[in-house]
Every structure is written in structure tokens, then in C-alpha cells.
Input
Amino acid sequence: MDSYREYLRFERGLSANSIEAYLRDAGQLAAFILGSDRPKEPAEVVLADIEAFMAHIYDTGSGDTTQARTLSGVRSFFTYLLHADRIQTLPTELIDSPRIARKLPDTLSYDEIRRMLESIDLGAPLGHRNRAILEVLYCCGLRVSELVNLRLSDIFAAEGIVRVTGKGNKQRLVPIADTALQQVELYLEQRRTMPVAADSAEIVFLNQHGRKLTRVMIFTIIRKTAAAAGITKTVSPHTLRHSFATHLLQGGADIRAVQELLGHESILTTEIYTHLEMRDLRGALELHPLAHSGTEKKESVETDDK
Output
């Protein structure tokens, strides 16, 4: 397991949270196999053992998403064992993942985002910081982890570019709108007058004590700003990222370009936004004069019968 941890960290470049999740999945499998009537070495595990383990996960009441994530962790562990020459074949190769219903993400309209931005009191001590946070999340489509780890050296103001470090420490360059850049620069002017902790000196967004913001703090800022703007939807930093992608596609952006901007490894992840756009198009179709022609015809027939 120690070697597996090193593999996840250095070979796959996963975050600390992801590493712990993968180790937990492998640990669950090990406990299940070793606790059976006939404990096995990894090389002895076969498809039937994996199926029995997944049935056990199902019996604990885990939903489809948890089952799929656990199976992904198990597959990762055996892939590592194969690379390390500990096993000769993958016992997970023929097992199917549970089907997961794709939930379309919530988005905000541009008017709702404008209301959120305008609801921030720029005269408050951290007003410019909060405005800059919202502007960057929405204008650049960042994940919350990417925002809290953004460094001063990642902002190239003259070029209008932000360097973003995403999942697996993969970096991408994202254009930043002039309005967002202006808000960041206004905040940075205030930041120069703040006390800054030595370990956070390179971090862009800081709390009132001069330390790096946490994910929870960002969630709190977004939630309070949405409430102040009178928005009743459940709004999170990811909602702004979803809105960024949706508004780009609605404006005619190419889906491959949106994939690059979001830092999605697979185009399939980005395609959920095309489903979201299709839902909006179906709603618009309701306004078509022939959209309910079948219903009207049926009602007319019923009236004639009477």
C-alpha cells in the first residue's frame, strides 16, 4: 500500500484527497478479501471476487455514484499491481460500471450573476477581494481548488492570461476578461497594505489574517453573496464554473475550446453542457405555434364528439 501511495502521488500526480480515496477503496477490497473464508494474495483474485466485493458494497446501501467510484479505485489498484509485475492479468477487465444518471448542473443567468456582483459592498474591508473572486470564478471558469491556489506569478496582466494548475498538477492558460483583471488589480492594491503570512506571500487571495483562503471560505463568500442578491438557488463556486461554460456555448463557442478552458481531460465531461443547452432549446420550442398542435387537435375532436 505504501508503494501504491507513491505511485498515485508521483506517477499519476493525484491530489492528497484523491490519493486517500483510492487507498480507502483498496483497503476496503483488502479487508473484504482477507476476511473471507479463503483469503487470497492479489495475484489469486479473479473476476468473481471483484463481483462479490461490489455486491457487498451494494448491500451496504451505497448508491450508484459510490459504487462507480469504488470500482474505479479498485481498477486503479489492480492497474498498479499489473505495472509493478505483481499480477499477470486484470481481474477487473470484464466488470461493468453501474450506470449513473447524469445530473445537469445548475446555472445562473447573466442577470443573476450581475446582481451578485453588484450586491458586493466595495466599501467593505474585503469588498474588492470578494468581487475579484466572483469575477475570476465566472470569467475564467476555475475550480475552487484552482482559485485558492492561484499565485501572483500566475497572473500575466499585460497578456490578459492566467496560468491555472488543475487536476494532476496539469497547467493551462486561460484568458481573463478586462473587467475581471481590473477587479483583481484593485484588490491587489489593497492586498499590499495587508499583513501577509510568510507561507502565503505568493498566494493571490488571502483572508483577513493574510493567509490562504480555504475552500469552505470561498463557498461561504459565494453563498452569502447570492443571498444578498436575492437569489434563492443553491449557488456554489462550481455553479459559476457551470455558468461560464454554458454561456460560452450559448454564445457560439466551440466545444473543444470550452474543453481546453475548463481543463477537462475528456470531451465527454464537457458534453454535459451541450445537454444543458439542448434542455434550454426544448424549452424554447414550447413557444413554437405548432408545438401543441397535437393537443389542440385532440381537444377539437373531443369537442366535436360532445
